[in-house]
Amino acid sequence: MGYPYSHDLEVGTQLSRHFGDERARTLEGWKGLGGYATLPKALEMDPDAITEVVKNSGLRGRGGAGFPTGVKWSFMPKEPNGAHYLCCNADESEPGAFKDREILRWVPHLLIEGCLIAARAIRAEHVYIYVRGEFFPFSAILRDAVVEAYEGGYAGEDILGSGWSCDVTVHLGAGAYIAGEETGLMSSLMGGRAEPWIKPPFPAQSGAFGRPTTVNNVETLAAVPMIVAEGADWYRQWGTDKSPGTKLWCCSGHLERPGTYELPLGVNLRDVIYEVCGGAPNGKKIKAVIPGGSSTAMLTDDELDCSGCYEGMAEAGSALGTASPIVMNEDTSIVSAMRRIAQFYAHESCGQCVQCREGTSWTAKILHRIEVGEGTAEDLDTLYHLCVQMTGRTICPLADSVVFPLVSSLDKFKDEYEALIKR
Amino acid sequence: MGDQVKKPLHPAAASSQPFQVTDLRPTERLFDDPEGRDRLDKALSRYPEKRAALLPMLGYAQERNGWVSDENMAEIAGELDLTPAYVRSVATFYTMYNKHPVGRHLIQVCTCISCHLDEAEEVFQRFLSETGARAGEVSEDGKYTVIEAECLGACGFATAVQINDRYFENVTPEKVPAILDELD
Questions:
Q1: Is A29 at the interface with chain B, CB within 8 A?
Q2: How far apart are the CA of A421 and the nearest CA of chain B, in angstroms?
Q3: In angstroms, what CA-CA distances link A255 with A39, A288, B156?
Q4: ipTM, 2 dp
Q5: Which of A72, A226, A258, A316 is 20 to 30 A from residue A207's alpha carbon, by CA?
Q6: How confident is the prediction for chain A on average, in pLDDT?
Q7: pLDDT grade, residue A6 (50/70/90)?
Q8: How many CB atoms lie within 10 A of CB B11?
Q9: Is the pLDDT of residue B1 over 50?
């Protein structure tokens, strides 16, 4: 909830400017706020010209991996030999991330417009917006907006009289974190268990229903209309050379003002935590921050002076991920927090790969054992060993996701683990 | 809505109806009545393959009955040219499909990391003590099922609680009785 809090660092582009404004939820209200102004322009553009603008803008995927969006689009076949699909990934479920829900519930038409422009660029005939099942209140807002878009001629047959047609369907998931992985999402969309598959084949070759498909995150697609409207250089006024633009930062944990804030990439992480979010409540010190959602490496308070962008967070030994800092104050038990994170991944492992299915589950069990004072010195070695086994050996990165925070917590807060073991 | 004529469901919305709702409309057979048939046809019209309507139809079964029975799974399998075993393998993969009846109000307390750092455990315990339910089981009066949930995606609003299709945010143990009073 960046709103109602505001801050000097806040950018407030089209992405977040209308958060909190009920008018933005309806077609009429949204048009009154300048919405759907870019779609007509995009309909007159050559699809590849749209991709070129997005490529030049340097927009990178906001779902966590940071892959350049325009480059991803350019992998799609230029001359369709059958259907193409766009999947909008609204399965937001990385612990710490709560940014896409703000787009879904406050500016649904911005997302729809972004989806349609992207669909035009990749020559898709159908957009599937896959929303995590739990998000009922937010998916209902989006669903109603999609119906309104159809009624207003912005979706469906012969959009705005252009001769181009594209369908949009809101599709609900049913409680599986792994459906947020792009191949898992497509497995789920096709009526299967949300099990990821090995790439290749890449989605642009053979994705949903065996057809060329692009999967983009909600926030990525919501940034597209303003980029196409204002141009790549305009978008590059924010951020760094390698991480242009703005980003929704969703900050949670022990903070005075938790919430979702649109900030330029490259913002100092310490400023995000202390200036924008007001630091920890009650004058407490901050012990650790998991900066990019629960699957990224922990940083200590001393390590927070880093550039909040893809390359900056990598240099700091962590990752930008979804830009979702989880802040832990001095009273936090790192072992307990880490156990809770491991428990999440153990619960959400799809079970296809042994290293992940067994690794996440044993990690959670061992951490629980240590937490309740029944750990042994050997347990720490076992945890490190498990981390080696879980890194880079599975179909998807779920197992790796528990390794990053775990190894960093073992390296940086070993004393906390040892204190519990020696007791 | 009152006496207003309800607008027919738009096909684009056929796969996104909330399926954990308070007011159930139980039915043994899902697709014998016009509503069920309409939902199925509209969902099918959105995908190039029948199988893709599976999650929407599992959701539809739960929207009507509050859970998904073996009979529902078999009926869906028949309509989508799938085997009941396959449908079950999918239904059991996803946590949100109830494979057993649940209380009128399914209370899911997020205890994942950001809520864990808040007061999630205390909120969870308070829901259990106030409802008299045991974790994961239906309370004796049939009104409540209380479970822990993995991340609900409301981390800045800890502690987050989902009750059927509604979100309750910034929940503290003290707020629990008032929330329960609000439920009918």
A1: no
A2: 22
A3: 39, 12, 9
A4: 0.97
A5: A226
A6: 96
A7: confident
A8: 20
A9: no
